[in-house]
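Input (structure):
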């Protein structure tokens, strides 16, 4: 009779039989998996450092995913995205991360008030979905002069990225032959990415969100 047939008749797993024949020992480890000491597990100090970094002003109002990629743009790698979610969840900060008032409710975001009394002082830009033929979708990058309401730059791309955002801003400035004092955008990831912020800082343009 084969081993497979014998195990079926006895209702015994073949792995148990082979382990018994090989003289294997049954593990007596009683430490819960969550409490086991893995070499790559973050220490309490490292977890606290991650929470503290994600509560600094430059990323405090971003989602965990947005904060993760914003820090990567800046050359900061704290941990994997999955680990960051886990650490922030354990810290009770996996939901709405907007800074809160003393009673625990999220503070309303202060809307910027921008004023321009001539062209090329303030530009506003956005990225919107643009339907294409069939099921295709494009991303429409648009730059608008606040004073004249004139579209000073636009381009359509197949996707949105921080690199394309920075290229779009630079191309618009080059085409216009001038740059504004302020460029306003919403709180999208491409608008707040480090690549975009670095470009505006280098050109001495104020970023408004």
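Output (sequence):
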């Amino acid at each position: 009779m084969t081993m497979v047939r014998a195990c079926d008749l006895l209702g015994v797993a073949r792995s148990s039989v082979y382990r018994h024949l090989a003289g294997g020992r049954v593990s007596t480890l009683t430490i819960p998996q969550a409490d086991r000491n893995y070499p790559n597990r973050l220490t309490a100090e490292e977890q606290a450092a991650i929470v503290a970094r994600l509560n600094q002003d430059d990323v405090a109002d971003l989602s965990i995913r947005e904060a993760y990629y914003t820090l990567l743009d800046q050359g900061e790698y704290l941990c994997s995205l999955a680990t960051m979610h886990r650490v922030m969840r354990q810290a009770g900060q996996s939901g709405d991360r907007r800074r809160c008032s003393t009673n625990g409710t999220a503070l309303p975001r202060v809307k910027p008030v921008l004023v321009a009394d001539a062209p090329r002082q303030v530009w506003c830009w956005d990225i919107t979905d643009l339907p294409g033929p069939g099921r295709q979708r494009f991303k429409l990058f648009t730059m608008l002069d606040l004073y004249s309401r004139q579209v000073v730059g636009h381009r359509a791309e197949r996707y949105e990225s921080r690199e394309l955002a920075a290229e779009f801003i630079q191309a618009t400035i080059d085409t216009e032959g001038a740059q504004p004092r302020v460029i306003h955008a919403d709180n999208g990831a491409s608008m707040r990415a480090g690549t975009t912020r670095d470009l505006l800082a280098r050109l001495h343009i104020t970023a408004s969100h």
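Notes: The radius of gyration is 27 Å. The chain has two domains: 43-108, 122-208.
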